[in-house]
Write a structure and sequence with these properties.
The protein is mostly helical. Helices cover 78% and strands 0% of the residues. It has a domain of 69 residues. The radius of gyration is 19 Å and the shape is elongated. The N and C termini lie far apart (73 Å).
Length: 101
């Protein structure tokens, strides 16, 4: 008998393996790069959690609907943090470019 597997169970695993390979490679990055990378990883992780909770809610397997709200809020906050980091870094770059030597 063929059973249909939900996509969210396979996709995060494949994505996680690719992320682990990227992180395992020596980058020699700066602290700024590390902070930015951790913010990107947080967005990926929280979005995967939110997607999983949405799937569980849609299939009726989620017992506590508050978990979906919490996951959605975490995902939104992680995206907002990443956007603010980007905005601040762009402001700093533009300020440095305005300096006359």
């Amino acid at each position: 008998m063929n059973t249909i597997q939900p996509l969210w169970t396979e996709m995060p695993l494949a994505h996680t393996a690719a992320v682990k390979e990227e992180l395992a490679a020596p980058t020699g990055g700066s602290p700024f790069t590390d902070i930015f990378q951790s913010a990107i990883d947080a967005v990926r992780t929280t979005d995967a959690e939110k997607t999983q909770m949405e799937y569980l809610m849609a299939t009726g397997e989620l017992d506590n609907p508050a978990l979906l709200t919490i996951a959605s809020t975490k995902a939104q906050l992680s995206v907002n943090l990443l956007v603010q980091l980007r905005n601040k870094s762009m402001e700093a770059y533009n300020e440095i470019m305005r300096i006359n030597l």
